[in-house]
Amino acid sequence: QVEFYLENIYEKVTGTKLVVSGLLTSGTVEKGQILNLGPDHIGNYIPIKIKSVHVDKQPVDSVTAGHHCSFSIGNIPGNKIDLKKYVRKDMVILDDLVTPMAYRTIQMNIKMLNIQKILDASLKKISLGVGSSFIIQFNNIRRAVMIKSIERINTKSDSADRVDGRVFPGDTAK
Predict the structure, then answer these.
(1) Residue 18 contacts by C-beta under 8 Å, 6 or more apart in sequence?
(2) What kind and span of H or E run contains 18?
(3) CB < 8 Å & 24+ apart, contacts of 170-174
(4) Please, how many CA atoms are within 13 Å of residue 6, restricted to the half-sphere of its CB?
(5) What confidence tens digit (pLDDT) does each residue in 9-53 have?
C-alpha cells in the first residue's frame, strides 16, 4: 500500500513540468507507476503517472517506505487536468490498494494543556468552545478547523469558572 505525503511542490525544474517531494510512509513507488493524487477541494483523487523518482537528488528506479523522496509527476493519457493548478501541499499519493477518503468532519479528543504556570495569570480565562478555530496537524497535513460541538469528558481545572460548552486549561473533551 503506497502512502506518500506531499510536503513541497516544485514547478521550475529543468527537464520536467512538476516535481513533488515528501515522505513515503508505506509501500514502494517505481518509475512509470500509476498512482492516485488527492484529495482536491471536493474530495476527489485523480490518477497520475510517476515519471521519475529521486532520493537525495539522485535518480533511482524505485523507493521504499521511510524515505524522503521526490517524484516528477504527469498526467496519464486522456487526463486534461492542469496539474500545476491542481496540486497543493498537504495532498497524498496513494495506490489502488488504499481506499482514498476525504473528510470534512472529524471527531477527536482534545486535551487542553494547563499553561497557566507558564503564561501570565491574566490569560487564565483561555478556553475552547463551539465556534473556536485552531490548526490541527497530522503528519505533514495541516488544516484550520472549527469546533461544531464539544462535550467535556474530564475537568482538571477549577470548577468555579466553569461555563457549559467550554473547555479550559487542564480539561479533556471530545
Answers:
(1) 9, 10, 11, 72, 73, 74, 83, 84, 87
(2) none
(3) 170/112, 170/113, 170/114, 171/112, 172/109, 172/110, 172/111, 172/112, 173/109, 173/110, 173/112, 173/128, 174/107, 174/108, 174/109, 174/110, 174/150
(4) 22
(5) 998 888 888 999 999 999 999 999 999 999 888 888 999 999 999
CB 102 within 8 A of CB 39: yes
Q: Which three cell numbers stand for residue 15?
A: 527537464
The three cell numbers of residue 126 are 483561555
All cell numbers assigned to 118: 507558564
Cα(19)–Cα(4) distance, integer angstroms: 13
| DSSP 8-state secondary structure symbol assigned to residue 86 | H
Nine cell digits for residue 129 = 468552545
